[in-house]
UniProtKB/TrEMBL annotation:
Top-rank lineage group of the source organism: Bacteria
Gene3D superfamilies with a match to the protein in the record: Glutaredoxin
InterPro entries the UniProt entry points to: AhpC/TSA, Thioredoxin-like_sf, Thioredoxin_domain
Domain Thioredoxin stretches: 31-200
Listed SUPFAM superfamilies: Thioredoxin-like
Protein name per its UniProtKB record: Peroxiredoxin-like family protein
One Pfam assignment: AhpC-TSA
Transmembrane intervals: none
Organism, scientific name: Caballeronia jiangsuensis
């Protein structure tokens, strides 16, 4: 006989698989290595404005897109990213997390790295990192505390897709890892290897950043 915990686990896995089926189609448009990163200015948790071009003046930037603190996997991913941010910094890059607005993330205000607030998932959409959640899962996500962005069209219920990008000083994506399954994490060593490959590279010419189109 299957116990209650087993039933609950099976239900969670089934919901995850349903969500992943939607993600696998949506993220075919996600930015890949070689693409030009969208220009952005986003506030951090303290309200300070952070611009990509300003970050790149100090060197390469690692962007870690999160689902948010409503998701236990998102919290785990942030903890793992925080644990390696010093290693990223020692290789000459800046570690930055990006997450949707979430009132319960105030406990992260003191993290010694920027956590940017992606209102309405504008930056996630620019990177191709959103998908429309199936209707059968929406109530469950709302119960978990997820607050979807304002719908772009009637019926939309967009959810961010976790991903990690390394952007070089010219604004070009040189490493991209998009997580089809949000339960997975990113490969820390693969990312660090990519960061090391940029270390000491001669600065190239600066190029203009495309601005995000209005929502």
């Amino acid at each position: 006989m299957t116990n209650d915990a087993g039933v609950a686990g099976t239900r969670v896995d089934a919901m995850a698989e349903l969500a992943m089926a939607s993600v696998s189609v949506a993220v075919t448009h996600a930015l890949h290595a070689g693409a030009l990163a969208p220009w952005f200015v986003l506030p951090d948790r303290k309200g300070n404005r952070v611009a990509l071009d300003e970050l790149l003046r100090s060197g390469p930037v690692v962007l870690n897109f999160l689902r948010g603190s409503w998701c236990s996997f998102g919290e785990e991913r942030l903890a793992r990213f925080f644990a390696m941010h010093e290693r990223i910094g020692s290789e000459g890059a800046t570690a930055v997390a990006v997450a949707p607005p979430d009132t319960s993330m105030h406990q992260h205000d003191r993290l010694p790295m920027a956590v940017l607030v992606d209102t309405d998932l504008r930056l996630a959409r620019a990177f191709g990192l959103t998908f429309d959640l199936p209707e059968s899962l929406r109530d469950h996500y709302l119960e978990l505390g997820y607050k979807p962005p304002k719908p772009r069209k009637c019926g939309d219920f967009l959810v961010p897709v976790p991903a990690t990008y390394l952007i070089d000083k010219d604004g070009i994506v040189v490493f991209a890892h998009v997580d089809f399954d949000y339960r997975n994490g990113f490969g820390e060593e693969s990312l660090l290897k990519a960061v090391r490959a940029l270390h000491g590279r001669r600065d190239g010419f600066r190029i203009a950043f495309p601005r995000l189109t209005p929502y």
